[in-house]
Amino acid sequence: MMGEFTRIEREGRVALVRFDRGDGLNALSAAAMRELTEVARSFEDDLETIAIVITGTARAFSAGADLTDPELASRKEKGLLARRHALRIGPEMCAAWERLEQVTIMAVEGFCIGGGVALAAACDIRVAGRSAFFRLPEVPLGMNMSWHSNPRLVNLMGPARAKLFTILGEKLPAPQALEWGLIEEVAEDGGALDAAMALARRFAALPPVAVRMSKQSIDMAAKALNQAVTYMDRDQFALAATSKDQQEAISAFLEKRKPNFTGE
After folding, report:
1. Residue 138 lies in a domain
2. In what order do the strands lie in the sheet with 51-55?
3. What's 2's DSSP letter?
């Protein structure tokens, strides 16, 4: 099965989803996010697949939101209700992957940034190449980290490390990401997909009903309050996007200078 940005391959009870926009960055445009959402939903009634591996390219999983996407850029020109509705696209993509009963494993080479990290946190297990790194630039750019990601990161890393990772916006190399709990395995460069597939085959060899029930019960134990504490994500993002600090952050980034934040 092939879409504009994705290709699904199958090996017995394992499915492999390749995400590749062909631009070397795999930035998350609105169209790409909708397609990734539909790919996840296509597995909802799939009773044959036990484990799903999702991967990007040898260079990157994703550079995050596509700032050049006209559809995403046009949000600012809309009214509040329309802007708020448009902001559903990212969190719905992550939720679609998180809701799956199959075990989901992400394989990362190169970089995984912003929305790419949000999607990784929505998966069950993450494997990365040794030179890969993760980063959340949202807060330094004057935005909040949304897409219901904060509790997922706390579930994985604990509150202190989640604050360091999310608020400072600094690169987190794969070996440190393993130590901090963001990922579960580091492979040699170029070997993340092979390692993820090997793990998927181990899950696929198990009784499918027991695997699904166990995943669901573990998720409920860890994530029962996640939705309750992040239901205002979109509103916080919409508010932050109106601040002068957010405008200053973007201007400073484009002009390659140090920003001057005032809290306005």
Report:
1. yes
2. 6-11, 14-19, 51-55, 103-108, 125-129, 185-187
3. B
pLDDT of amino acid 231: 84
Question: How far is 166 from 134, CA to CA, in rounded Å?
Answer: 11
**pLDDT of 79:** 82
Average pLDDT over residues 105-123: 98
User: Residues 33, 69: contact at Cβ < 8 Å?
Assistant: no
Has residue 72 been placed in a domain?
yes
Question: In 219-242, which positions are buried (b, 16+ CB within 10 angstroms) versus exposed (e)?
Answer: beeeeeebeeebeebbeebbebbe
pTM for the full predicted model: 0.93
d(CA 153, CA 162): 6
Q: What is the CATH number of the domain that holds 75?
A: 3.90.226.10
What is the rounded CA–CA span in Å between residue 20 and residue 100? 22
For residue 110, being part of any structural domain is answered with yes
> In this structure, what token pair is assigned to residue 118?
């949000």
Total count of domains within the chain = 1
What is the four-CA torsion angle of 254, 255, 261, 264, rounded to 10 degrees? -60
Residue 124: inside a domain, yes or no?
A: yes
Q: What is the pLDDT of residue 230?
A: 87
Tokens of 221: 């134990």
Per the structure, the complete domain to which residue 152 belongs is given by 6-188
Give the DSSP letter string of 78-102. Answer: S-HHHHHHHTTHHHHHHHHHHH-SS
Residue type at 234?
Answer: R
Kindly report, residue by residue over 35-89, the tens digit of the pLDDT: 999 999 999 999 999 999 999 999 999 999 887 888 887 777 778 888 888 889 9
